[in-house]
Inverse folding.
């Protein structure tokens, strides 16, 4: 009878579920007005994105170099005016010239032709060292929270021997889509689930065998009791 009891006990089925937290805030990216070549395009993430970004597209045939903020002083050289025979300095058409030979070595990223580069709080610190991830990833968010302070910085793009400065801002708003996934209904009895197809046939077959074994054991018990009574 112990064997039969083990057969009749219905197991519980556990659903595979891994709880997933969500971000408290939406990261809003913006850039300052600048004149870039037609082949270079910078797109902003949607304003309700929990993890915002800048997406730089290079549609030119030449590579685009992305330089850290502090690299500007190393690649721009002050042009010294030439001295004429009478000792007077000639007027310079430009205060600074780009030292293009140093650009590849100082570039943090190189965007090849027809490629794109995504910049966010994970890789922006390579361009601006003080940028940090101020978003909060958690399962719950209080009703009253303070928004993180906005972050500002700049980096540089070098394309066809020209340098462009990109100024950006990361500001924050409440994540209106905050919805962490939990596993509140992780365990459910099999008896509560609808069984169809081959699973239903297997369940019916198992129940039939169990019922048959119960009947056989009952008959054997009655037979043994009858034999003892006849003695």
């Amino acid at each position: 009878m112990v064997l039969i009891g083990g057969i009749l006990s219905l197991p519980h089925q556990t659903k595979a579920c891994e709880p997933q937290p969500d971000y408290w805030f939406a990261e809003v990216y913006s850039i300052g007005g600048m004149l870039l070549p037609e082949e270079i395009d910078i797109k902003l993430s949607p304003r309700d994105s929990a993890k915002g970004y800048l997406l730089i597209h290079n549609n030119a045939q030449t590579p685009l170099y992305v330089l850290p903020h502090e690299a500007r002083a190393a690649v721009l050289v002050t042009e010294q005016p030439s001295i004429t025979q009478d000792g007077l300095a000639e007027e310079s058409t430009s205060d600074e010239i780009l030292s293009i030979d140093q650009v590849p070595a100082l570039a943090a990223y190189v965007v090849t032709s027809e490629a794109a580069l995504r910049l966010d709080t994970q890789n922006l610190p390579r361009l601006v060292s003080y940028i940090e991830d101020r978003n909060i990833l958690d399962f719950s968010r209080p009703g009253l929270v303070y928004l993180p302070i906005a972050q500002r910085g700049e980096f540089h793009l070098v394309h066809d021997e020209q340098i462009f400065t990109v100024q950006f801002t990361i500001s924050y708003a409440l994540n209106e889509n905050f919805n962490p996934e939990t596993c509140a209904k992780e365990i459910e009895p099999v008896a509560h689930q609808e069984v169809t197809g081959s699973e239903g046939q297997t369940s019916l077959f198992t129940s039939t065998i169990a019922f048959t074994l119960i009947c056989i054991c009952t008959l054997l018990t009655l037979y043994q009791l009858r034999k003892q009574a006849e003695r």
